[in-house]
Specification:
Number of strands: 10
Distance between the termini: 34 Å
CATH topology: Rossmann fold
Structural class: alpha/beta
CATH architecture: 3-Layer(aba) Sandwich
CATH class: Alpha Beta
Number of helices: 11
Strand content: 25-35%
Helix content: 25-40%
Radius of gyration: 17 Å
Strand order of the largest sheet: 6-7-8-3-9-10
Order of helices and strands: EEEHEEHEHHHHHEHEHEEHH
Shape: globular
Length: 234
């Protein structure tokens, strides 16, 4: 469904993504893992078209997308929920969600998708007229994900959805990600929380200093002694 081939990315003259190759199959959850500063968020920005690659190719459904504008990538069905939620704090929950459905296709199905979002996140329905900035951190993260779903993603890219959440909300967030995948949405998940990510994903890639150092099925990575020692503290 999505593939990256020999992707290199620079900030000024410093290489931050180095010859990365990865792929995502339809209806998978694929985790991109690694420490802070490993290049995980940059990788999502490159796929979204927000950061240009220096060399390499990105294909979505057998079509190159690394040469087209970010809004065109969104129209093709790649939706990016960035780190830090980035909701509109002065708009209501409902207004935030409606803004997520801005492509012509998403607008035409907005009411149906809105109901589906409320079914998935009942707390957002209860707070639909509340300002986004007054929600708790966990509720704001739910709103950010629900707003992403309003864009009718074929692939939903989530950047650190558990960051800064209380432990009970972290568990809830990973349950929600699993639920979204179970209804047919492919997910590319960037996370520092290696253990929980590998528990719910099909496959994983471990990024270190911009390079992939481990990859494979999630269960195999969970059992890998090097991964356990370096990333799970075991």
């Amino acid at each position: 469904m999505l593939s990256l081939k020999k992707v290199n990315v620079y900030y000024d003259k410093v290489a931050v993504i180095k010859s990365v190759e990865l792929y995502v199959n339809d209806k998978e959850i694929v985790a991109i893992l690694g420490a802070n500063g490993a290049g995980k968020s940059t990788l999502l920005r490159v796929i979204s078209g927000l950061k240009k690659l220096a060399t390499g190719e990105i294909e979505f459904l057998n079509e190159r997308i690394d040469t087209i504008a970010p809004h065109k990538i969104v129209e093709k069905g790649i939706i990016h929920v960035p780190e830090g939620r980035k909701i509109f704090p002065s708009l209501t929950v409902l207004e935030n969600l409606q803004l997520g459905a801005y492509t012509p296709k998403a607008k035409s199905k907005r009411e149906k998708t809105l109901q589906e979002a409320f079914d998935l996140f009942p707390v957002l329905k209860e707070r639909k007229n509340q300002l986004g900035g007054t929600l708790s951190g966990g509720e704001q993260q739910m709103l950010a994900i629900a707003r992403g779903l309003m864009g009718l993603p074929q692939i939903l890219m989530l950047d650190e959805p558990s960051l800064g959440l209380a432990p009970i909300m972290v568990k809830e967030m990973f349950r929600v990600v699993n639920d979204i995948n179970s209804i047919g949405t492919t997910i590319l998940l960037v996370e520092q929380n290696v253990f929980h990510s590998l528990q719910i994903s099909n496959r994983g890639y471990v990024l270190e200093n911009g390079s992939i150092v481990f990859e494979g099925k999630s269960k195999a990575l969970l059992g890998d002694e090097n991964v356990k020692k370096a990333y799970l503290g075991m």
